[in-house]
């Protein structure tokens, strides 16, 4: 070993620390792992739940608990990352996720499952709030939309890979290994983040949750985030029911339709961010995206054949992505002067989880009173109203 090796290693680590590209890759990897673990349970739990003596209703509690923890802890974690730094929160979040995943593998009681899912939601609050804030403060603001779009694409990859990985591991290795193998991978990613000396700007010791100005713009962003998340909250549990009732779609076919939805988001999010960076267009991207989402939902529900419904779902994925991605750099701009990027994305996560939880609950309240297609049409109407209001408001404010 030569004496130059430690110097070369140190220089390499410093280049990574100073590279926004490397930071983007790390954060995208963290987000991917979180979503993959989230989806890991989807094909496994229905097989395992009967062994614990729980029925289908408990499945909803387990999945809703994740959103509840994300809702409760996102803002506190974001504010904490403003004070202690991004990397400690990301590393802590990944280690918590590894612990929660391993706990799933050894769960022998309902209490174990509840604790594991709660810890998983808390870890997501830490990694998402700190990770997105890290991108915002290390990236050139002129490219932030594209970078956020790329980071959010990791959600689509994780959504597709997680259930597939969970199903394969469960089938060939059994329940415990299904969670222990990913737990080791998550812990390894956390250690990689720990090994990289991420450089960020000095944090604000008095980070604020609400800015002194631009509160109307912040409220508008919150409405958009809730609208998009609530749409996913309705589509995820109820579109499979519609597809099965209307076209006798099998579980495998339904899985492919949702893969199309995820692929559309993967393709559209970086493109929408790039368009916003170069041309602005929040009025067209957000307002137009919500209006197009409404039209796509109507088309999917009214489609006479499954291929047409699948095409409409693809358009829905594109449109929702166009609506949500510009919110990310807008939030960064609101909080940039306050040094509170953690607060910005804690608020983003809070409102996203609020919409994600509100969608299924609203659907459950209405499903016994209105036909299933009417539920989708009501959501389409809400999207259309929100999109039209946003389009008009942006026009009056003179925003691009």
UniProtKB/TrEMBL annotation:
Every Major facilitator superfamily (MFS) profile domain range: 23-398
Listed name of the protein: Major facilitator superfamily (MFS) profile domain-containing protein
UniProt source species: Methanoculleus chikugoensis
Protein topology in the membrane: Multi-pass membrane protein
Alphabetic keyword roster: Membrane, Transmembrane, Transmembrane helix, Transport
Entry-linked Pfam families: MFS_1
InterPro entries: MFS, MFS_dom, MFS_Vesicular_Transporter, Sugar_transporter_CS
Transmembrane segments: 21-45, 57-77, 89-108, 114-136, 148-170, 176-196, 217-235, 247-272, 284-305, 311-335, 347-368, 374-394
CDD domains: MFS_MdtG_SLC18_like
Domain of life: Archaea
Localization of this protein: Membrane
């Amino acid at each position: 070993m030569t004496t130059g090796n430690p110097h070369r290693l140190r220089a390499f680590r410093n280049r990574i620390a100073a590279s926004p590209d490397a930071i983007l890759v790390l954060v995208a990897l963290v987000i991917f792992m979180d979503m993959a673990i989230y989806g890991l349970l989807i094909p496994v739990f229905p097989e395992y739940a009967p062994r614990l003596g729980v029925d289908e209703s408990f499945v909803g509690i387990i999945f809703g608990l994740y959103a509840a923890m994300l809702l409760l802890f996102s803002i506190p974690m974001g504010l904490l990352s403003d004070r202690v730094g991004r990397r400690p929160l990301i590393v802590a979040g990944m280690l918590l996720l590894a612990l929660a995943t391993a706990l799933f593998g050894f769960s022998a009681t309902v209490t174990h499952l509840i604790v594991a899912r709660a810890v998983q939601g808390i870890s997501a609050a830490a990694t998402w709030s700190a990770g997105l804030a890290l991108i915002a403060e290390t990236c050139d603001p002129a490219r932030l939309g594209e970078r956020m779009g790329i980071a959010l694409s990791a959600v689509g990859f994780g959504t597709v890979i997680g259930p597939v990985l969970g199903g394969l591991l469960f089938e060939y290795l059994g329940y415990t290994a299904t969670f222990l193998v990913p737990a080791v991978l998550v812990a390894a990613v956390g250690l990689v983040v720990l090994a990289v000396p991420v450089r960020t700007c000095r944090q604000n010791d008095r980070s604020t949750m609400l800015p002194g100005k631009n509160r109307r713009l912040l409220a508008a962003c919150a409405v958009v985030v809730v609208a998009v998340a609530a749409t996913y909250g309705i589509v995820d549990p109820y579109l499979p029911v519609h597809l099965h009732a209307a076209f006798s779609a099998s579980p495998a076919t339904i899985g492919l339709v949702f893969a199309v939805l995820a692929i559309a988001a993967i393709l559209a999010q970086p493109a929408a961010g790039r368009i916003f960076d170069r041309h602005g267009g929040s009025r067209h991207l957000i307002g137009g995206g919500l209006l197009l989402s409404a039209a796509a939902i109507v088309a999917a529900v009214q489609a006479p054949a499954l291929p047409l419904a699948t095409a409409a779902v693809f358009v829905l994925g594109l449109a929702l992505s166009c609506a949500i991605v510009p919110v990310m750099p807008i939030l960064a701009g609101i909080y940039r002067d306050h040094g509170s990027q953690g607060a910005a994305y804690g608020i983003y996560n809070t409102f996203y989880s609020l919409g994600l939880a509100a969608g299924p609950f609203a659907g459950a309240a209405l499903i016994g009173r209105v036909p299933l297609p009417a539920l989708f049409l009501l959501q389409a109407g809400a999207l259309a109203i929100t999109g039209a209001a946003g389009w008009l408001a942006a026009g009056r404010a003179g925003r691009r």
